[in-house]
Amino acid sequence: MAQMKLEHNGTTPAGTELYCLNMGPQHPSTHGVLRVMLELDGETVVKATPVLGYLHRGIEKLAEVRTYPQFIPYTDRLDYVSSMCNNLAYCQTVEKLAGIEVPERAEYIRVMMAELNRIASHMLFIGATALDLGGMTGMMYTFRDREYILDLFNLASGSRLTYSYVRIGGVMNDISAEFITLLRKFLADLPGMLTEYDNLINGNEIFQARLKGVSIIPAAQLVSLGVTGPVLRAAGLRDDLRVKRPYGIYERFHFNVPTGTVGDNWERYMMRVLEVGESAKIIAQALEGLPEGPVMAKIPKVIKPPVGEVYHANETPRGELGFYIVSDGTTKPYRLHIRRPTFYNLGSIETLCRGVKIADVAAVLAVLDPCMGEADA
Amino acid sequence: MQESASIWIGLGRALKKCVLDATGTPWLADFVHTLAGVVGILTLILLSALILVYLERKVCAWMQMRLGPNRLGPYGIFQTIADIIKLMTKEDIQPAMVSTVMWGLAPILLFMVAMTTYAVIPFDAGVIFADLNIGIFFFFAVSSQATLPMLMAGWASNNKYSMVGGMRSVAQMISYEIPMVFSVLGVVMITGSMKMSDIVQAQEGLWFIVTQPVAFVVYIIAATAETNRTPFDLVEAESELVAGPFTEYSGMRWAYFFLAEYAFMVGASCIAATLFLGGWHGPWLPGWIWFFIKVSAMIFLFMWFRWTFPRIRVDQLMSFGWKVLLPLSVANILVTGIGLWLFFPLS
Amino acid sequence: MYGIGLLKGLSVTLRRCFSKPNTVEYPEERLPVGPMFRGGCIDLNLDKCIACGLCAMACPNSAIDLTTEKSESGKKVMARYFHRLPVCMYCNYCIEACPTQAIHWTQNYEMSALQHADLIIDCMAGKGGSR
Fold first, then answer.
1. Which of chain B's residues have a Cβ under 8 Å away from the Cβ of A206?
2. pLDDT of A147-164, one tens digit each?
C-alpha cells in the first residue's frame, strides 16, 4: 500500500501536525468492508480517501462463463439489500436486447416487488443511520418492521434476501391470495411504523443537529462526480429514472419524487424516508390494477440474443443501476459491465468529508447508504 | 442531632462493642468500625455494578422489544457472574510500546476516584462514612479527578483512536464540570451549608426539586456528560472510535473501567437523590430503602436516556455546555439569590 | 418548545419497554419457514427421477455432481448424486429444471458441520436401488 502523502506537507497554519487515522475495513460504521483513510487536524478532516475492493468477487468476469438466465442469482448478490431491483434491471436489459415482451401481470408483480424492496432497503437505511449515530434502539425497530417485508418475500419466492424472483420474460411464479392479504395488512400498518420512526429518530433534536447543515455540496458538482439516487435528489435535482426514462410500466403510476433544497446530510436522509411513502402509493396502485394472466412469457428454453450491445438502467434505492451487455450471439454474454451506483456515490466521499469532524464521517457514510457488495462487485 | 435509629448504625455500634469487649483497646474498635464502613461501601459498589450490568442489558432489551439475557439462571440473573469469570480468565494483552506505568495505573486510579466519592453520600440518617462540613464540595473535587486517568489511558495506549478518545474526554469533562457545580450551588445557597446531612435535613418539608427544577435538569444533563453516558458518550463512541481510551485494555483492566463507569453513574444518581429528591426521607419505610428507591429511579432515567438518544458531536457538545448550560446555571443562581433575599432577608 | 422531539422519543421507548417482546426463543421455539423455503439440501426421489441431468446443467455453480448409468433394462438411472453445499447458491434453478419434480428442498436449515467433507451431501444414501 502506497504511503499517503499528507496535505500541506503535514502541517497546519497553526503549526500543529496532521495525522492519519485509518477507518479500516473492519469498523463498526463503514457499512461493510470499506476503508477510509482520514487525514486529521485535531478533530477536523482535511482529506478522506476511500479505498474499495475488499469485497471484490469478480462478478462481471463470472458473467462471461454463465448463461443469461444463470446469471440472475449473481445479480442478487450485488446489492444484497435490494435484490429484486437488481434482478429487474438485469432482466429488463436482456429483454431489451432479445426483444422479449413481458406479460401484463408479470409487469405489475415486478413493480410491486421492486417497490417493496425499496421500502425494505430504506428501512434498513434508517436503522443503520440511527445505529451509526448512536441510537441503537432505532435500528431494532426498523429491522423488526422490515421482517414483515422479508416474510412476504419468503412467501412469494422462498428466500428472504437473495430472491432471483424476477426472471427473463416474467417472474418466477405467481403470487398467492395469502400474499395479497398480507401485503394489504402491511400497507395498512406502514403509516404507524413511519410515525414511530418520526417520534424516535427523525424528530429527535440531537439527530437533526447531527445531520443538518453538514456536507453541503451543489448539485452540479455531484453530477460531475457521477452521483445518482437520493443523494443527488437531496441537492435539488429532480432526477429519478422512474420518471425521466420510465422502464417497465412506471408511466402508469402517479407518485411524487421527493426533492431537497439544501443538499445537506439531513435532506439526504429525509429523501429516503419520504420515498417509503411514495413506494407505498405505487404498490397500492399496482394492487388495484393487477390484471389476470400468465406471469411468464413464451420464450425459448435457451436464450440466444442477437449480436449487439445494450445499456439499460433502473432506479434502485441507491441510485442508477445500469447493465451494459455485449452479446456475440451465443448463450453467454461476451462482456457484461454493471454501472454500480454505490461505486460512484462512494467516489464523492472525498468531496463530502472535507472540513467535517470525525463523527460526521460516520454520518456521511451512513447517509450515502453504501452497500459494499455493490461497490466492489 | 438526635440519635439515628437506622439499622446500619445499630450494626456498626454492635460491632464496635464486640471488638471492645473482646480486646479492650478502643482504637482497635474504632479501626474495625471504620474498616467495616470501607468494606460496606466497596461491597455496595461491587454489588451495584453486578446488578446494574445485568439490569442495563435487560432494560436495553425491553426497550428494543427483545428479551435480554435469559439463559443463565432464572431470568438470566447469573449473566454477570459469567461475564466476570470470562473477564478474569481473559489474556492480559499489553500492546507493544505503551507507557507501561501510565497504562497500568489508569484503570486503578479511575476506580479509586470512583470509590472515594462514596465517602460523603448519606445512605440513611447518620449512615455516612465521613460527614465532612464540605461534603458536597469534596464530592465534586474528587470526581473531577476522573479526567486524568482517562487522559492517561488515551495517551499511554499508543493508539490514535485512544488518543482522540482521551482528548475528547478531557474536553467533555472539563466543559461539564462547571454547569454541574453551579447547578448544585443553588441548593447549597438555600441550605446554607455544604454538609450532606444538613442538605438532607433541609428537605424534610419540601424536596429541592420543587424549588430548583432548572437546577435539577441542568444537573441531570451535566451528570450524564460527566459519567460518559449517551447522549454524551462520544468518548467511547462505539460506532466511530471503537472504544476510545479503553481500546487497548482487555480482561480485568477493562473490567476496572467498566466498574468505575457504573460506580460514577450510581454516585451521580446518589447525589441527585440526596440533593434534589429528599435524600432518605420518606414515610413508613426505613430511610435507606427510600434512598435505594430514589437512586433506582435516577438510574432508570439514565438508562432510559442511553437507549433513546443518539450521540452528540464534540463541537456541539462544547457549544451546548458553554453556551446553554452555563448561562442557565448562572441564571439559576441569580434567581435563587434574589428569591432568598426577598423571602428570607438577612437580619 | 425545543426538546419536544426528545420527549416524544422517550415516550416511544417507554411504551415499548412495557409491551410484549418480539423474540422467538430459538432453539426451543422455531418460526415456520413456509412451503417455498429454499433451505437444507436436495431431497431426491428416485422413483420419479429419470436421470436426465437437467438439474446439474441448470445449476450456475455446478453444485450438483451426478453420474448416470444404464440399467439392465436399458433405461438411464442415477448412479451418484452429490449436492455440494459449499458452492450451492440456493437459487432454485435445479428444482425448477426437473421435469418430473423429483427433487425438493429438505428445508432443514441447521446444516452446519465441523468438516468440510460433511457438507458434500450424498443424496442417494439410504434410498433404495435404481429402478
1. 231, 309-312
2. 999 999 999 998 999 998
The full DSSP string for B14-49 is HHHHHHHHHH--HHHHHHHHHHHHHHHHHHHHHHHH
**Inter-CA distances, B71 with A286, C22, C23, Å:** 46, 17, 13
Chains that touch C (3 or more CB pairs under 8 A): A, B
CA B5 to each of CA A55, B10, B90, B135: distance values in angstroms, whole numbers, following the listed order:
69, 7, 46, 22
| Total domain count, chain A | 1
Taking an 8 Å cut-off on Cβ atoms, the answer to whether C18 and B307 are in contact is: no
Nearest CA in chain B to C28: B71
Closest in C9, C16, C18 to B309, CB measured: C9
Q: What is the pLDDT of residue B28?
A: 86
Tell me: the pLDDT tens digits for A228-255?
A: 999 999 999 998 999 999 998 999 999 9
Residue A9 lies in a domain: no
Domain coverage including residue A211 = 59-376
Taking an 8 Å cut-off on Cβ atoms, the answer to whether B64 and A140 are in contact is: yes
- The residue whose grid cell reads 506505568 is B101
Q: How confident is the model at residue B346 (pLDDT cuts 50, 70, 90)?
A: low
C34-49 tens-digit pLDDT: 888 998 888 888 888 8
Residue A90 lies inside a defined structural domain of this protein: yes
CATH number of the domain bearing residue A99:
1.10.645.10
- What average pLDDT does range B261-275 have in this prediction? 92
pLDDT of residue C131: 40
Buried residues in B61-90 as b, exposed as e (16+ CB within 10 A): bbbbbbbbbbeeeeebeebbeebbeebeee
Three-state helix/strand/coil letters over A73-133? HHHHCCCCCCHHHHHHHHHHHHHHHHCCCCCHHHHHHHHHHHHHHHHHHHHHHHHHHHHHC
Neighbours of chain A (3+ CB pairs under 8 A): B, C
Would you call B324 an interface residue with chain C, using a CB distance cutoff of 8 Å?
no
B64 touches chain A (CB under 8 A): yes
Residues in B closer than 8 angstroms to A357, CB to CB, are 313-315
The residue in chain A having the minimum alpha-carbon distance to the alpha carbon of residue C36 is A158
d(CA B141, CA C76): 89
Domains of chain C: residue spans and CATH: 34-124 (3.30.70.3270)
Chain C hits for B221, CB-CB cut-off 8 Å, are: none
Verify whether the Cβ–Cβ distance A70 to C58 is below 8 Å: yes
CA dihedral B220, B222, B226, B232 (to 10 degrees): 90
pLDDT value of position B26: 82
Using the predicted structure, report yes or no on whether residue B17 has a pLDDT greater than 80. Answer: yes
Residue at A31 is within a domain:
no
Distance CA B296, CA B85 (A): 26
Lowest mean pLDDT among B19-28, B34-43, B132-141, B308-317: B19-28
Whether chain A has a CB inside 8 Å of the CB on C58: the answer is yes
pLDDT higher than 60, residue A1: no
**A304-353 pLDDT, tens per residue?**
999 999 999 999 999 999 999 999 999 999 999 999 999 999 999 999 99
Query: With an 8 Å Cβ cutoff, are C37 and A73 in contact?
Result: no
Please state the ipTM of this predicted complex. Answer: 0.89
Which of C1, C12, C22, C105 to mutate: most A Cβ within 10 Å?
C12
Dist. CA B302–CA B296, nearest whole Å:
10
3-state secondary structure of C80: strand
Is A265 domain-assigned? yes
Distance CA A368, CA A44 (A): 20
- Name the residue with higher pLDDT: A183 or B98: A183
Q: Which residues have C-beta within 8 Å of that of residue A3, sequence separation ≥ 6?
A: none
- Whole-model pTM: value is 0.90
Q: How distant is the Cα of A343 from the closest Cα of chain C, in angstroms?
A: 25
